[in-house]
Amino acid sequence: MTVITRYVVEHKGVEKFVTADKKEADQYDKMLDVADNLGEYIQGKGIALEPKVLEDLSIMLSKNKDSLSKLLKGTTAESLLTTETAEVVKIDKKKA
Length: 96
Description:
- By secondary structure, the chain is mainly α.
- It has one domain (7-95).
- The protein has four helices and two strands; from the N terminus they run ββαααα.
- The protein has a two-stranded antiparallel ribbon with strand order 1-2.
- This is YebG family protein.
- Pfam families: YebG.
- InterPro entries: Uncharacterised_YebG, YebG-like_sf.
């Protein structure tokens, strides 16, 4: 018999992520918490968005918090996107 440990991240009653890695599950859970906080902040500033759009935007911002931080410090979007694209290509070449 094999015992498999799975970590399930549930958010607002919906299963969002399943993994065997506790650290990865904790990181994903934290990202969702940050996304919730961002959504509340955006709504609190009076910006009215459809719930799905608000959720997608908040999750995207949360997943890209490091890039967002660089943008807020003055890095241009163009240079940041160029760097991120180069990193994705580099990762894809390693997988091949």
